[in-house]
Amino acid sequence: MAAGRARVSRLLRQLERAACRCPSHGHTYSQVPEQPNLGNTDYAFEMAISNIRYGEGVTKEIGMDLQNLGARRVCLMTDKNLSKLPPVNAVLNSLVKYGINFQMYDNVRVEPTDQSFLDAIQFAKNGEFDAYVAVGGGSVIDTCKAANLYAASPSSEFLDYVNAPIGKGKPVTVPLKPLIAVPTTSGTGSETTGVAIFDFKELKVKTGIASRAIKPTLGIIDPLHTLSMPERIVANSGFDVLCHALESYTALPYNQRRPCPSNPINRPAYQGSNPVSDVWALHALRVVAKYLKRAIRNPEDREARANMHLASAFAGIGFGNAGVHLCHGMSYPISGLVKTYKPKDYNVDHSLVPHGLSVVLTSPAVFAFTAQIDPERHLEAAEILGADIRTARIKDAGLILADTLRKFLFDLNVDDGLAAIGYSKADIPALVKGTLPQVRQRAKQLFLSNKIEQILEKNGSASFPASFISIPT
Question: Which of 137, 365, 429, 445 is the most exposed place for a label (fewest CB within 10 A)?
């Protein structure tokens, strides 16, 4: 068991130190480089979230919020599908009622790219706005964050703020305009975080922009907006919440992260599991266990959909300060290298693996592996999700959580592994390369690649062999 824990710990630490970590959740806010000091672990953690307002029908207050901010020219961002749906209408009604001057940009791309970011940025620069409202899922909110940033820094090149090594990773020092985020899905938690992710098409990788400065000023969590979500969007959004909670709770503890920063500006927001993020992660997991299936199966179940909307924010607070690990790290090439897959209930004109689906597909294999480092936490998570652990053995924690997840997902008609979304064994090298594209040291690269390849191979189908818990050195 000790050897297994050491292997998992080493992998997670290598992922943490890799030059291109999980672009949505795993990098520092400041890209200032630290000199490695492997014997010097951190001793502190820091919490940062957006202001949050929750309540049924609370969207009607947005016009008053903008009045209170003294906004004279507002940018409203959304996507073409949402522009015709009740959430956007509710925002428009409030803006009109309170006499807010605004322009609407509805060309946000689901799963944004560098080019779609640039299009929105140009709109924001042309508009000279003094406040922003984003109505939609993570794609819309992230696009609006980027537009706000570059409009506030018009002389900056696009790659100036993009995370290193793809971009320059410059810290944000310019003041941004207020941004109100109105999430319409129950998954990303983007209303609580300072991250904006996109597909960098030329390199076929996901990357992003990360800074406390781009956090929304206010997140408006109105459960009425979830009532118009189709079944598969509810499911895939909920899978993202599930993995946010599981991964942040099982991440390496903050006091095992190293090196300790020489200056607090260099301390990453995603610092490892800690006593505060644990509270939010566990609570989100309990809500998912109780309400996700109900929310998917019955669109009229207002209690279930309202609670999942809150769970998204709860998990966002958790992972936004702890980080996530392998499920998310491997999800980006799974979505970025998509071939022809188009999911049900998504009205898009391009191939797409929804983020929550790309994350959850590898989760049974991932947690079968990571349980070696903290089996007690994995057993606790399995129990919350419905497993009977009264006679469970600690050494079986990974198998128990993996089996529990597999049953949970099969009950919700999840695509059966990577093969079901168009991948084969021949694609595994590309998926591995896309997971860790910037690991420079050859020994480190081989170690990480071998472990990731094993997980991906075992997850060609969701029914991977139970013996996967034994991973050779």
Answer: 429
Residue 447: phi and psi, rounded to 5, are: -60, -50
Pairwise CA distance, residues 152 & 150, whole Å: 5
Give φ, ψ of 223 to 5 degrees.
-65, -15
Contact call for residues 315 and 284 (beta carbons, < 8 A)? yes
What are residue 52's DSSP bridge partners? Answer: 219
* In contact, 149 and 209? CB cutoff 8 Å: yes
Least Cα distance to 323 among 377, 260, 269, 258 occurs for: 269
Looking at residue 449, its pLDDT comes to 61
Distance CA 97, CA 91 (A): 10
Tokens encoding 315? 């998990």
What gap in Å lies between CA 228 and CA 185, rounded to an integer? 10
Q: What is the DSSP string of 257-295?
A: -SSPPSSGGGS-S---B-HHHHHHHHHHHHHHHHHHHHH
Cβ proximity of 331 and 114 under 8 Å: no
Could you give the C-alpha distances from 64 to 59, 93, 130, 297, in angstroms and in order? Answer: 10, 12, 15, 36
Q: Is 281 exposed, middle or buried (0-12, 13-18, 19+ CB in 10 A)?
A: buried
CA 336 vs CA 199, 302, 331: distances in Å: 7, 34, 8
Residue 401, pLDDT score: 97
When computed from its CA atoms, the radius of gyration of the chain, rounded to whole angstroms, is 21
User: What is the C-alpha separation between 318 and 322, in angstroms, rounded?
Assistant: 6
CA distance 401 to 377: 10
CB 292 within 8 A of CB 360: no
What is the distance between the alpha carbons of residues 352 and 342, in angstroms, rounded to a whole number? 5
DSSP helix/strand/coil, 60: helix
**Residue of 358, 53, 422, 11 lying closest to 197 (CA atoms):** 358
Strands 131-136 and 74-77: parallel
pLDDT, residue 283, reads: 97
The whole model's pTM is what? Answer: 0.82
Cα–Cα distance for residue pair 13/32, rounded to 1 Å = 19
Q: Which two tokens stand for residue 435?
A: 């997971």
| Block mean pLDDT (10 aa), the chain, length 473 | 64 52 42 49 86 95 98 97 93 98 96 95 97 96 98 96 88 95 90 88 81 92 90 93 96 89 79 92 97 94 95 90 87 87 84 90 94 94 96 95 95 90 90 64 49 64 34 25
Residues, the chain, total? Answer: 473
Buried b / exposed e over 361-377, threshold 16 CB at 10 Å, is bbbbbbbbbbbbbbbeb
